[in-house]
Amino acid sequence: MNLIANYVDFSAHQCLPAVLRWCDTAGIYPLSLLDAETRAQLLETWSRYSVMRSIQMEVHVRGHQWERLLANSCTGTMVRVQPMITRLGRTSYTVRNEVTSSSLPLATVETVMVQLDESLSKSVPLSCSEQLKSILKPQSTATGIRCPVAGKRPSACFSWGCEVRPSDCDLLGHMNNASYITLVEDARRAAGLTFDVQVASIEYLLQAKAFELLQIALWRDQPSAQGQSVIGYEMKGEQGLVARGSLVSFLEAKL
């Protein structure tokens, strides 16, 4: 699916939430390969009862290069998002999105989706799993995104508070997946952690609701095996821990 890349953050660099929104927009594209009846059934089920369990994303173009790319046109740069289903489980599946512009790789996003019951509280077997096997494109585990897992939150770390806006929420009534990353990005900017992010992860634990008060904690973790900076974060709401994950910087060249 072709889209216009007209979303950037205030530094004019890559905007992680924007990449996730592009992937959301293209997410149902694989269903075009199915027959009309199966496609309609899955669209109904997925739009009402499917939620994201986790996301891992890797950005292939760092800040200053991203800025030049998006400056090519006053109306934004054309990007192509190619989603594919790479794993089918009993109650979950994985969608991998390849984001490119003029054949230049921009980002890769892997999302694990879970199908819930009508109460949105319990996972249930996938609908039309047999039909989905016809469009399954398994990937080697060696090609998957690997984001370092941050260690335990220290007792003293930076904390930033905010409130979930109604406009942050989707049709299921909880905060949209991209909005989580938006708030984490705002928090790390407030903490002065302004490096370009190469790899990021988020694990969704609870569903944050409109007007819920959130507290986002961030801390510097041990560097990656390659020497990259690693930031761990946790997002806590009124019901408990709603999300956690890591942000990893690009590897700096050593002279």
Short description:
The chain is an alpha+beta fold. The protein has helices at residues 16-26, 36-49, 63-70, 129-132, 177-190, and strands at 2-5, 50-59, 77-88, 92-101, 104-115, 158-163, 197-204, 213-220, 230-237, 240-249.
Outline the structure in words.
- The protein is α+β, with helices and mostly antiparallel strands and 255 residues long.
- It has 2 domains: 1-145, Thiol Ester Dehydrase, Chain A (Roll), CATH 3.10.129.10; 147-255, Roll (Thiol Ester Dehydrase, Chain A).
- It has 5 helices and 10 strands, in the order βααβαβββαβαββββ.
- It has a 10-stranded antiparallel sheet with strand order 1-3-4-5-2-7-10-9-8-6.
- α1 runs antiparallel to α5.
- It starts with a strand and ends in a 6-residue tail after the last strand.
- The mean pLDDT is 84.
Radius of gyration over C-alpha positions, nearest whole angstrom: 18 Å
Number of DSSP strands? 10
Order of helices and strands: EHHEHEEEHEHEEEE
CATH class (first level) name of the largest domain: Alpha Beta
Strand order of the largest sheet: 1-3-4-5-2-7-10-9-8-6
Average residue pLDDT = 84
The helix content, as a percent range, equals 10-25%
Number of domains: 2
Q: State the distance separating the first and last CA atoms.
A: 41 Å
Beta-strand content: 25-35%
The protein's oligomeric status is: single chain
CATH topology of the largest domain: Thiol Ester Dehydrase, Chain A
The biggest beta sheet is recorded as: 10 strands, antiparallel
